[in-house]
Phosphomannomutase (Leptotrombidium deliense), 259 residues
Amino acid sequence: MAVEKSNDILCLFDVDGTLTHPRQKIEPQMEKYLQKLRNVVHVALVGGSDLSKIYEQMCGNSGNANKPLEELLEEYDYVFAENGLVSYKGSTLLGKQSIANFLGEEKCQEFINFCLDYMSKLIIPRKRGNFIEFRNGMINVTICGRSVTQAEREEFAAYDQQHHLRKQFVEALEKRFPEEYGLAFVIGGQISIDVFPKGWDKTYCLRWIPDNFKTIHFFGDKTAVGGNDHSIYVHPKTIGHHVNCPDETMSILSDIFGL
Ligand code: M1P
Protein backbone atom coordinates (compact mmCIF):
# COMPACT_ATOMS: atom_id res chain seq x y z
CA MET A 1 0.00 0.00 0.00
CA ALA A 2 1.40 3.42 -0.97
CA VAL A 3 2.11 5.72 2.00
CA GLU A 4 0.88 9.28 1.53
CA LYS A 5 3.58 11.97 1.56
CA SER A 6 3.45 14.22 4.57
CA ASN A 7 3.73 17.88 3.55
CA ASP A 8 4.46 19.27 6.98
CA ILE A 9 7.51 17.18 7.89
CA LEU A 10 11.03 18.09 6.79
CA CYS A 11 14.12 15.98 7.43
CA LEU A 12 17.19 18.22 7.37
CA PHE A 13 20.60 16.54 7.20
CA ASP A 14 24.13 17.68 7.85
CA VAL A 15 26.41 16.08 5.21
CA ASP A 16 29.88 15.12 6.56
CA GLY A 17 29.68 12.41 9.23
CA THR A 18 25.88 12.24 8.94
CA LEU A 19 25.09 11.20 5.35
CA THR A 20 28.69 10.50 4.30
CA HIS A 21 31.93 9.71 6.08
CA PRO A 22 33.97 12.93 6.47
CA ARG A 23 34.72 14.40 3.00
CA GLN A 24 33.82 11.06 1.37
CA LYS A 25 31.22 10.30 -1.27
CA ILE A 26 27.75 9.15 -0.28
CA GLU A 27 27.27 5.35 -0.32
CA PRO A 28 24.73 4.05 -2.92
CA GLN A 29 22.63 2.55 -0.11
CA MET A 30 22.21 5.98 1.55
CA GLU A 31 21.54 7.66 -1.81
CA LYS A 32 18.66 5.25 -2.46
CA TYR A 33 17.38 5.52 1.09
CA LEU A 34 17.10 9.33 0.88
CA GLN A 35 15.07 9.14 -2.31
CA LYS A 36 12.79 6.54 -0.67
CA LEU A 37 12.44 8.87 2.31
CA ARG A 38 11.46 11.68 -0.04
CA ASN A 39 8.35 9.69 -0.97
CA VAL A 40 7.06 10.14 2.58
CA VAL A 41 8.53 13.46 3.83
CA HIS A 42 10.44 16.48 2.48
CA VAL A 43 14.23 16.19 2.51
CA ALA A 44 16.90 18.89 2.76
CA LEU A 45 20.68 19.16 3.20
CA VAL A 46 22.62 21.69 5.27
CA GLY A 47 26.40 21.50 4.96
CA GLY A 48 29.19 23.73 6.25
CA SER A 49 31.05 23.09 3.00
CA ASP A 50 30.58 25.06 -0.19
CA LEU A 51 28.28 23.87 -2.96
CA SER A 52 31.02 22.29 -5.07
CA LYS A 53 32.08 20.00 -2.19
CA ILE A 54 28.49 19.06 -1.37
CA TYR A 55 27.90 18.30 -5.06
CA GLU A 56 31.03 16.13 -5.27
CA GLN A 57 30.07 14.18 -2.13
CA MET A 58 26.36 13.78 -2.79
CA CYS A 59 26.78 12.63 -6.40
CA GLY A 60 28.39 9.49 -5.00
CA ASN A 61 29.96 6.70 -7.02
CA SER A 62 26.84 5.08 -8.42
CA GLY A 63 25.44 5.11 -11.99
CA ASN A 64 24.98 8.84 -12.46
CA ALA A 65 27.99 10.29 -10.63
CA ASN A 66 28.52 13.00 -13.27
CA LYS A 67 24.98 14.30 -13.26
CA PRO A 68 24.56 18.07 -13.79
CA LEU A 69 24.39 20.17 -10.62
CA GLU A 70 20.73 21.09 -11.36
CA GLU A 71 19.81 17.40 -11.38
CA LEU A 72 21.37 16.84 -7.96
CA LEU A 73 19.68 19.95 -6.56
CA GLU A 74 16.29 18.71 -7.82
CA GLU A 75 16.75 15.48 -5.84
CA TYR A 76 16.25 17.47 -2.61
CA ASP A 77 13.64 19.98 -1.52
CA TYR A 78 16.33 22.34 -0.27
CA VAL A 79 20.13 22.37 -0.41
CA PHE A 80 21.81 24.76 2.01
CA ALA A 81 25.54 25.13 1.32
CA GLU A 82 27.87 27.08 3.64
CA ASN A 83 25.26 26.74 6.46
CA GLY A 84 22.54 28.20 4.18
CA LEU A 85 24.59 31.23 3.19
CA VAL A 86 24.13 29.82 -0.32
CA SER A 87 20.61 28.36 -0.51
CA TYR A 88 18.62 26.49 -3.14
CA LYS A 89 14.99 25.32 -3.30
CA GLY A 90 15.31 22.55 -5.84
CA SER A 91 17.55 24.15 -8.47
CA THR A 92 16.34 27.70 -7.81
CA LEU A 93 18.77 29.96 -5.97
CA LEU A 94 17.08 31.52 -2.94
CA GLY A 95 19.95 33.67 -1.71
CA LYS A 96 23.69 34.11 -1.34
CA GLN A 97 25.50 35.93 1.46
CA SER A 98 28.85 37.67 1.16
CA ILE A 99 31.44 37.77 3.94
CA ALA A 100 33.54 40.08 1.76
CA ASN A 101 30.78 42.71 1.92
CA PHE A 102 30.25 42.10 5.63
CA LEU A 103 33.91 42.66 6.53
CA GLY A 104 35.03 45.13 3.87
CA GLU A 105 38.41 44.83 2.16
CA GLU A 106 40.52 46.26 4.97
CA LYS A 107 39.25 43.85 7.63
CA CYS A 108 39.38 40.92 5.17
CA GLN A 109 43.07 41.52 4.62
CA GLU A 110 43.71 42.10 8.33
CA PHE A 111 42.13 38.72 9.01
CA ILE A 112 43.87 36.82 6.19
CA ASN A 113 47.27 38.31 7.04
CA PHE A 114 46.93 37.38 10.70
CA CYS A 115 46.03 33.77 9.80
CA LEU A 116 48.89 33.38 7.33
CA ASP A 117 51.35 34.83 9.84
CA TYR A 118 50.04 32.58 12.67
CA MET A 119 50.13 29.44 10.52
CA SER A 120 53.59 30.24 9.13
CA LYS A 121 55.02 29.78 12.63
CA LEU A 122 53.60 26.28 13.14
CA ILE A 123 55.64 23.16 12.48
CA ILE A 124 53.39 20.15 11.85
CA PRO A 125 53.96 16.71 10.28
CA ARG A 126 52.98 17.93 6.76
CA LYS A 127 51.91 21.19 5.10
CA ARG A 128 50.51 21.48 1.60
CA GLY A 129 48.64 24.26 -0.24
CA ASN A 130 45.35 26.20 -0.11
CA PHE A 131 45.47 27.41 3.49
CA ILE A 132 42.69 29.97 3.13
CA GLU A 133 39.56 29.16 1.14
CA PHE A 134 37.55 32.32 0.58
CA ARG A 135 33.93 31.24 0.04
CA ASN A 136 30.75 33.28 -0.40
CA GLY A 137 29.54 33.49 3.16
CA MET A 138 32.52 32.21 5.12
CA ILE A 139 36.29 31.86 5.17
CA ASN A 140 37.71 28.38 5.74
CA VAL A 141 41.21 28.21 7.25
CA THR A 142 43.31 25.02 7.16
CA ILE A 143 46.63 24.72 9.00
CA CYS A 144 47.89 21.75 6.94
CA GLY A 145 46.45 23.17 3.68
CA ARG A 146 43.23 22.01 2.04
CA SER A 147 45.12 20.28 -0.78
CA VAL A 148 46.35 17.45 1.48
CA THR A 149 45.66 13.90 0.32
CA GLN A 150 43.14 11.75 2.20
CA ALA A 151 45.98 10.02 4.10
CA GLU A 152 47.56 13.38 5.02
CA ARG A 153 44.13 14.66 6.13
CA GLU A 154 43.70 11.67 8.48
CA GLU A 155 47.24 12.21 9.77
CA PHE A 156 46.57 15.89 10.57
CA ALA A 157 43.20 15.05 12.19
CA ALA A 158 44.92 12.55 14.53
CA TYR A 159 47.77 15.01 15.25
CA ASP A 160 45.25 17.77 16.03
CA GLN A 161 43.36 15.52 18.44
CA GLN A 162 46.57 15.09 20.39
CA HIS A 163 47.97 18.63 20.12
CA HIS A 164 44.79 20.79 19.88
CA LEU A 165 46.25 23.10 17.25
CA ARG A 166 42.86 24.23 15.96
CA LYS A 167 41.55 24.90 19.47
CA GLN A 168 44.60 27.09 20.19
CA PHE A 169 44.19 28.83 16.83
CA VAL A 170 40.54 29.61 17.63
CA GLU A 171 41.61 31.06 21.00
CA ALA A 172 44.20 33.26 19.26
CA LEU A 173 41.60 34.40 16.71
CA GLU A 174 39.10 35.24 19.45
CA LYS A 175 41.73 37.34 21.18
CA ARG A 176 42.91 39.14 18.03
CA PHE A 177 39.39 39.64 16.57
CA PRO A 178 37.19 40.43 19.58
CA GLU A 179 33.45 41.11 19.82
CA GLU A 180 33.42 44.26 17.65
CA TYR A 181 34.50 42.28 14.56
CA GLY A 182 31.32 40.21 14.94
CA LEU A 183 33.01 36.99 13.84
CA ALA A 184 32.48 33.37 14.96
CA PHE A 185 35.26 30.75 14.71
CA VAL A 186 34.03 27.17 14.55
CA ILE A 187 35.81 23.83 14.30
CA GLY A 188 33.51 22.19 11.74
CA GLY A 189 35.24 19.27 10.05
CA GLN A 190 38.44 17.24 10.39
CA ILE A 191 41.17 19.73 9.49
CA SER A 192 39.86 23.29 9.25
CA ILE A 193 38.19 26.20 11.00
CA ASP A 194 35.11 27.97 9.59
CA VAL A 195 34.93 31.72 10.07
CA PHE A 196 31.70 33.65 9.53
CA PRO A 197 29.74 36.56 11.00
CA LYS A 198 27.97 35.69 14.27
CA GLY A 199 24.52 34.28 13.53
CA TRP A 200 25.57 32.94 10.11
CA ASP A 201 25.81 29.45 11.63
CA LYS A 202 23.64 26.50 10.61
CA THR A 203 20.49 28.12 12.06
CA TYR A 204 20.83 30.63 9.20
CA CYS A 205 19.22 28.11 6.84
CA LEU A 206 16.01 28.00 8.91
CA ARG A 207 14.90 31.38 7.51
CA TRP A 208 14.34 29.72 4.13
CA ILE A 209 12.05 26.99 5.46
CA PRO A 210 8.37 27.98 5.26
CA ASP A 211 6.08 27.83 8.29
CA ASN A 212 3.97 25.05 6.80
CA PHE A 213 6.66 22.62 8.01
CA LYS A 214 5.38 21.85 11.49
CA THR A 215 8.12 19.33 12.25
CA ILE A 216 11.76 19.72 11.27
CA HIS A 217 13.95 16.75 12.16
CA PHE A 218 17.64 17.73 12.13
CA PHE A 219 20.37 15.06 11.97
CA GLY A 220 24.01 15.92 12.69
CA ASP A 221 27.22 14.55 14.17
CA LYS A 222 28.94 17.71 15.52
CA THR A 223 26.11 18.51 17.95
CA ALA A 224 28.17 19.13 21.10
CA VAL A 225 28.91 22.69 22.27
CA GLY A 226 31.51 24.21 19.91
CA GLY A 227 30.55 21.84 17.07
CA ASN A 228 29.06 23.33 13.90
CA ASP A 229 25.77 21.40 14.30
CA HIS A 230 25.17 22.53 17.87
CA SER A 231 23.19 25.74 17.21
CA ILE A 232 20.65 24.08 14.94
CA TYR A 233 20.52 20.86 17.01
CA VAL A 234 19.27 22.81 20.06
CA HIS A 235 17.17 25.34 18.12
CA PRO A 236 13.50 25.42 19.25
CA LYS A 237 12.33 24.98 15.64
CA THR A 238 14.04 21.60 15.24
CA ILE A 239 13.92 18.14 16.74
CA GLY A 240 17.63 17.34 17.00
CA HIS A 241 19.08 13.87 16.46
CA HIS A 242 22.73 13.20 17.24
CA VAL A 243 24.41 10.56 15.07
CA ASN A 244 27.93 9.14 14.95
CA CYS A 245 27.94 7.91 11.36
CA PRO A 246 25.70 7.44 8.28
CA ASP A 247 24.55 3.96 9.42
CA GLU A 248 23.20 5.46 12.62
CA THR A 249 21.34 8.12 10.61
CA MET A 250 19.61 5.38 8.62
CA SER A 251 18.81 3.39 11.72
CA ILE A 252 17.14 6.40 13.44
CA LEU A 253 15.20 7.18 10.26
CA SER A 254 13.86 3.63 10.07
CA ASP A 255 12.80 3.83 13.72
CA ILE A 256 10.90 7.08 13.08
CA PHE A 257 9.43 6.41 9.64
CA GLY A 258 9.43 2.61 9.51
CA LEU A 259 11.24 2.58 6.16
O1 M1P B 1 31.80 18.89 7.91
C1 M1P B 1 31.67 20.16 7.41
C2 M1P B 1 33.02 20.80 7.17
O2 M1P B 1 33.68 20.12 6.12
C3 M1P B 1 34.94 20.61 5.76
O3 M1P B 1 35.79 20.49 6.89
P1 M1P B 1 37.23 19.76 6.87
O4 M1P B 1 37.81 19.93 5.52
O5 M1P B 1 37.95 20.44 7.97
O6 M1P B 1 36.95 18.32 7.20
C4 M1P B 1 34.88 22.08 5.40
O7 M1P B 1 34.23 22.21 4.16
C5 M1P B 1 34.17 22.88 6.46
O8 M1P B 1 33.92 24.18 5.99
C6 M1P B 1 32.84 22.25 6.83
O9 M1P B 1 32.24 22.93 7.90
About this structure: The chain has eight helices and eleven strands. The two ends are 13 Å apart (CA to CA). The chain has a mean pLDDT of 95.
